[in-house]
Design brief:
Number of domains: 1
CATH architecture: Beta Barrel
Number of strands: 8
Mean pLDDT: 84
Distance between the termini: 19 Å
Strand content: 35-45%
Low-confidence stretches: none
Strand order of the largest sheet: 5-4-3-6-7-8
Length: 160
């Protein structure tokens, strides 16, 4: 089942169907990009924490622009989600959680004490990512693994 917050976040790819009769309402749906599974250079366009009402938890969404080998042509935007816990007041990033490990890899060093682990460490950076498909009646592409960060500090790979 597609994440409803992803539909909201991906306003760029929103598609509308045309009315065929005056009785039918206009239906909006999120057009999820689908690219061939494999390893791609990618640019992290945006990263944001939000409260997911469906799953009743905090989620951090990173959206990567998967690029062709020439690093100019875009193949499509692919997301990756991180769980931030179900405390409604603020997200959590436990040391054994995926977000904390990915943040360390992107930052290149451990956070100073009391650092907020802001998702901006991911944005406006190049990475090598592994893209795969979701399972379901209408599969779409997602980031399965962040292999390495190409800008900023070099860091080990991170598996989702």
């Amino acid at each position: 089942m597609p994440n409803l917050a992803y539909l909201w976040f991906m306003t760029k790819t929103k598609t509308k169907t045309k009315k065929t009769t005056s009785d039918e309402p206009e239906v909006e749906w999120g057009e999820y990009p689908r690219i061939e599974p494999g390893d791609y250079p990618a640019y992290c366009l945006r990263a944001k924490w939000y409260w997911d009402h469906y799953y009743r938890r905090w989620t951090c969404l990173l959206v990567f622009d998967a690029l062709a080998a020439n690093l100019v042509d875009s193949l499509g935007e692919v997301p990756v989600w991180f769980n931030g816990g179900n405390d409604e007041t603020h997200p959590k990033a436990p040391r054994r959680g995926n977000y904390f490990v990915a943040w360390l890899a992107a930052n290149g060093r451990k956070p100073p004490r009391r650092d907020r682990l802001a998702p901006k460490v991911f944005t406006k950076r190049m990475a090598q990512v592994r893209v795969g498909d979701t399972v379901g009646p209408c599969p779409y592409s997602v980031v399965k693994k962040i292999l390495s960060w190409k800008t900023g500090s070099e860091s080990p790979s991170f598996s989702l």
